[in-house]
Amino acid sequence: MTVMITGGAGFIGSHICVELIQAGRNVVVYDNFCNSHPEVINRIRRITGTAPEVVKGDVRDVEALISALSAHRFSAVIHLAGLKSVADSVTSSAEYYDCNVVGTLRLAQAMQQTGVRNIVFSSSATVYGEPDVLPLREDHKLAPFSPYGRTKLQAEELLSDIAHSLPPLNVVILRYFNPVGSHESGLIGEDPNDVPNNLMPYISRVAIGRLPVLNVFGNDYPTSDGTGIRDYVHVVDLAAGHVAALDHVHKQKVLKVNLGTGRGTSVLELVDAYTAVSGRTIPFAFAPRRAGDIASYYASGDVAEETLGWRARRDISDMCRDAWNWQQKNPNGYLDQ
Ligand SMILES: NC(=O)c1ccc[n+]([C@@H]2O[C@H](COP(=O)([O-])OP(=O)(O)OC[C@H]3O[C@@H](n4cnc5c(N)ncnc54)[C@H](O)[C@@H]3O)[C@@H](O)[C@H]2O)c1
Fold first, then answer.
1. If you measure from the C-alpha of residue 80 to the centroid of ligand 1, how many angstroms do you get, rounded to a whole number?
2. Measuring from atom 9 of ligand 1, which residue has the nearest CA?
3. Could you tell me the residue ranges of all domains in the chain?
4. What is the pLDDT of residue 117?
5. Phi and psi at residue 26, in whole multiples of 5°?
6. 108-155: per-residue pLDDT in tens?
7. Atom of ligand 1 nearest to the CA of 198
8. Which residue is catalytic, options 148, 176, 221, 297?
9. CB-ligand 1 contact for 60 (6 Å cutoff)
10. Distance from Cα 81 to the centre of ligand 1, integer Å
């Protein structure tokens, strides 16, 4: 069984490569490396004993996709390639629509032309927007308030429509909550190019001394300690969710599934957990709320459990321990080869 992973060199994609290779699947990474480092392929080989085949290409390049998809008998594509910064999506909206929406359309067209039927798509909890009720269920209204969230919603919609067209596709849409942590080996992990947008890699860089202080945006939310609450999910659990999705994808035209733990953790709780596993002091300062931030959200995991038989296994302490292990072993990310 051969699977193409677009964006397979990135943070989440590299962990999926490991899970799939260890589950006996043949993996082809399709990536333009705009936000990843080629060294990751060597690290995947060190963990699994097998280096995935790599095709350097862009998901907007339909000819390159057709050529890559024709080279093997692919049973499925896992589509992660995309741009993911909420802030950049405001300043570079056209680029985000081009990469995330047009890229998804081109991929679906290439799959139709080459007879590859099954796709698992990386969506995001940002498609929900402000929660009316918690935990967030898949049938909650969809009202993203960033261009990034809207690109994910449009990609979901176009895939759901193409699923029912001719030739049809089978689609599993995975709505990730907040993926963090790293493989327990410390060989692969999250390695943002610039100052991290996400909380966990920011905490890691403060802990290792690359950044001086953590800004905590908002301490007056209606939560237990006033800071924002999110549903952090270990990236290895998330990767296992993709293996389960591949087993399910041919059974249903379109399935939309949350991947989260169902548990909310505040910013200060995450800082405490990280301090406990690292033994490092994490200096932090309260700063004003950021526009568009939500007080609290976390997933309902019922659909994931009922359809995919998937449930997150690792807790916040595991996530912090593995993030810290990666950070310590690779203080400068993949530049530490
Ligand atoms: N990390 C998160 O917090 C999070 C949360 C929800 C959803 N997602 C989604 O999951 C996916 C993977 O996220 P990640 O955290 O691994 O990001 P990442 O940036 O580490 O990985 C994305 C990969 O896609 C590649 N890529 C980007 N544009 C491309 C293009 N046009 N053609 C080919 N390759 C391209 C990049 O080089 C990179 O290797 C993204 O689609 C993201 O929107 C991520």
1. 5
2. 122
3. 2-182+233-262+300-313
4. 97
5. -90, 130
6. 999 999 999 999 999 999 999 999 999 999 999 999 999 999 999 999
7. 3
8. 148
9. yes
10. 5
Please confirm, yes or no, whether 297 is among the known catalytic residues. Answer: no
196 lines ligand 1 (CB under 6 A): no
Neighbours of 281 (CB within 10 A): 10
Instruction: Answer yes or no: is the C-beta of 334 below 6 A from any ligand 1 atom.
Output: no
User: Does the C-beta of 10 come closer than 6 Å to ligand 1?
Assistant: yes
Q: How far apart are CA 263 and CA 233, in angstroms?
A: 9
Pairing mode of beta strands 284-287, 232-234: unpaired
Could you tell me which residues come within 8 angstroms of residue 272 by beta carbon, excluding any fewer than 6 positions away? none
Q: Residue 189: CB within 6 Å of ligand 1? A: no
Q: pLDDT band at residue 194, thresholds of 50, 70 and 90? A: confident
CA of 10 to the centre of ligand 1 (A): 6
What average pLDDT score do residues 275-300 get? 95
pLDDT at 247: 97
End-to-end CA distance of the chain: 31
* Each residue's pLDDT tens digit, 42-84: 999 999 999 999 999 999 999 999 999 999 999 999 999 999 9
**Amino acid 195: pLDDT:** 86
- For residue 68 the two structure tokens come to 């890559």
pLDDT for 193 beyond 90: no
- pTM higher than 0.85 for the full model? yes
Tell me which amino acid residue 66 is.
Answer: I
State whether CATH 3.90.950.20 applies to domain 2-182+233-262+300-313: no
